[in-house]
Specification:
Glutamine Phosphoribosylpyrophosphate, subunit 1, domain 1, nine-stranded mixed β-sheet, 13 strands, 34% helix, globular
Length: 318
Amino acid sequence: MKYAMIGTWRMAQDGVVAALPSLAQGGIAGDAVEQAIMTIEDYPYFKSVGYGGLPNEHGIVEMDSAFMNGDNFQLGAVGGVRNIANPIKLSRLLSQQRVNNVLVGAGAEEFADEHLLPRKGMLSARAKKRWDKKVDQVKQGGRLTPYDGHDTVGMLALDRSGSMAVGTSTSGLFMKHAGRVGDSPLAGNGFYVDSQVGGAAATGLGEDMMKRPLCFEIVQAMERGANVQTAVDQTVYPFIEKLGQRNGQVGEFSYVAMDNQGNYAIATNVEFSFAVGNEYLKPTVYVAIPGELGKVEIKPATQAWLDAYLARVQAEVK
């Protein structure tokens, strides 16, 4: 049986590199998703996930996460959690419970403590500097917008036994209102997976992406017989167009999807990077550049692009 992983943004490559070997050796999809996302949560330079994530308006890192098992549809999710070292670990643990699968804030943190999950101060010195700088800009008359910073890591895995899993993790919008939760922990909106069909994960402006459960609809389209690219295209782009017509504005929408044979596809209305790895392909970063609605050019990231990315994320915050 084939094995494969796909994740959102360049940061997903670190996770795929860490977890793909376990799938090659017969490991299970759920373990691979958890390992991959924990790798990303632990890396301090990815400013929108885990340690070093983007703080809210009060300078506090509040995180959302979810995990779903495609074999039995068990899912777990958390919203607005603080000082949890690895929200994906907590989400997966919740997915294994019969009830209380979705917890927020203090309740989620209490559950983590009861199960001895590691605690960690998630506000890094870099993130604090970034927050201080933004506070100063606002005091001087600047404006906050939903695009001051946000990105979710969404990760799909297929193992040799045919099982699939999906996970998400994010610190959400930079300078968001305390308690704000986006689409990432919402089943159907931020993620969905069915091992007999396939799965999808989302990243973008949660307030717009939660307006319709497109991840679920992508999987439904595959179940009805569409190939993965057709399923993504026919689900995502018509809604983006409809939302623009009815709402007058559309935020960022980006999706990765994979069927139960390891075939993958993406849809996006912004420049978007993603990482893929399987039994034939070492972990590779691709860049998708949208043209007219529904038309996307996808190319492997050049070394120059990768070098520029690393320099940018590791640059000193002044």
